[in-house]
Amino acid sequence: MLRALARASAALGPRVAGWARTMASQQLLVAPPGALLKPLSIPNRLLLGPGPSNLAPRVLVAGGLQMIGHMHKEMFQVGHVGGSSGSLGKGQGAGPDLHARCPQIMDEIKQGIQYVFQTKNPLTLAVSGSGHCALEAALFNILEPGDSFLVGVNGIWGQRAADIGERIGARVHSMIKDPGNHYTLREVEEGLSQHKPVLLFLTQGESSSGVLQPLDGYGELCHKYKCLLLVDSVASLCGAPIYMDQQGIDILYSGSQKVLNAPPGTSLISFSDKAKNKIYTRKTKPVSFYLDMKWLANIWGCDGKPRIYHHTTPVISLYSLRESLALVAERCSDQALGVHDKRLLGPTQGLPGSLPAHSPEAGGAPPSGQPPGEATCHVGWLGEQLEAAPGGHGLPAPAPAGAGPAALCEGSSAPAAHCHHCGCTRWLRLEGHRQLCHGPF
pLDDT band at 51, cuts 50/70/90? Predict the structure, then answer.
């Protein structure tokens, strides 16, 4: 056998060498790009748009840690291996230390998401993709062709949820409101009663128009009509209070790059037991394999089964997400999850582009803990065009009355939502107005 292999290798040798010479002799059609022969240079810029946001030093350090495999024990851990428990919070030190103990990075991220969402849902995880990816993960796994889907459209995120629902083949019913207006319980109940949906979509922080949607009572109302409640908190998580379990939210998702102050590219999502049951009893497969929640539940240790490979998770991004969640956890107080809202209520009122206050005539209750008559936009709504580069920067003009959601988009002159999660608040003077500026400096 060995002699036969040796003879075969000798016979193939010249051919292999010839192939190598042929490949090497071909001339390059595309020259090395000159720009790539220079080091990357990025300006130091204060970000005041809806996102991405400035990163804390601890998060930046995490992004430079050593790469490991996406299935190594530090990522794909099933049990504790030495050291202390893998929980987030105080006592972890001032920065990441992935070498002092064997971490359980994915499990720790899951715990951090449960904390910032205020949920005990086992089916809680991070999605390898932006907030859009989490929105699609929610809709792809919950909706089936022919399902009735009720969508609150008061900005572009409702528009996009409706678009995705149509692509799935759901029967989409849009509740359209002018930008800057939220949905009242009465309006939602009318939609639930009329359309009998399996799912209602609401945006907590509509970054294209700057409105904050109250959530108390909406989950209970949905359950009365045997409907699940899906909430987009991409622009508002950690900037405005949200309590998933207490508010009866069935599916909640958010992004990493907004108030949470992690790099873009990962998102957070959680499903209630009712939503999980809908996923596991569906008659058809989700339209996406990549976002199939049964697979994602497994790799994130949510189904109690041995974890198996599904896709290569963004390891470095998960380091950074873990550290951003740790910074929130270390505040260790109820106020940490909505630390900015009281700071921003007063200063944002009366600014160009600010939104009207809640009023009894509108038929809606203000957000949790907000007295009637205070501004709707209590998360620090700033125009995406604002930057801290030298020079004058005017505040964005308000959207024309009745302009409609189509007139609003990220980067337009409409007010956009964002505030950065950090331990300090600084004042900037822009065109004679005082603005709150958040983020590490």
Answer: confident
Length of the chain: 441
Residue 326 token pair? 């740790």
**Cβ atoms of 162 and 213 closer than 8 Å:** no
Euclidean distance between CA atoms 54 and 434, whole angstroms: 20
| Separation of alpha carbons 362 and 181, rounded Å | 9
- Is the model more confident about 430 or about 196? 196
Angle of helix 131-142 versus helix 273-280 axis, rounded to 10: 60
The residue that leads in pLDDT, 436 or 133, is: 133
**CA distance linking residue 351 with residue 378, whole number of Å:** 13
Q: How far apart are CA 238 and CA 245, in angstroms?
A: 16
Phi and psi of 113, rounded to 5°?
A: -65, -40
126 and 178 Cβ atoms separated by less than 8 Å = no
Strand runs labelled E in 179-311? 199-203, 205-206, 211-212, 228-232, 251-255, 267-271
Any idea what the Cα angle at residue 348 is, between residues 346 and 349, rounded to 5°?
A: 70
pLDDT tens string 396-415: 333 433 344 333 333 333 33
The beta-strand segments (E) located in 251-398 are: 251-255, 267-271, 381-382
Q: Are 146 and 170 in contact (CB under 8 A)?
A: yes
User: What are the backbone angles phi and psi of residue 357, rounded to the nearest 5°?
Assistant: -75, 160
Residue pLDDT, tens place only, 280-304: 999 999 999 999 999 999 999 999 9
What are the boundaries of each domain within the chain? 57-331
Contact between 326 and 89 (Cβ < 8 Å): yes
- Alpha-helical (H) ranges within 283-314 are 293-299
Range 57-331 has CATH code 3.40.640.10: yes
Exposure of 170 by Cβ count < 10 A (0-12 exposed, 13-18 middle, 19+ buried)? buried
Residue 359 DSSP symbol: -
Least confident of 91-100, 138-147, 165-174, 218-227: 91-100
Q: Is 89 exposed, middle or buried (0-12, 13-18, 19+ CB in 10 A)?
A: middle
Query: Measured between alpha carbons, how far is 225 from 146 in angstroms, rounded to an integer?
Result: 18
CA atoms of 441 and 439, how far apart (whole Å): 6
119 pLDDT band (50/70/90 cuts)? very high
Q: Any idea what the Cα angle at residue 239 is, between residues 390 and 57, rounded to 5°?
A: 55
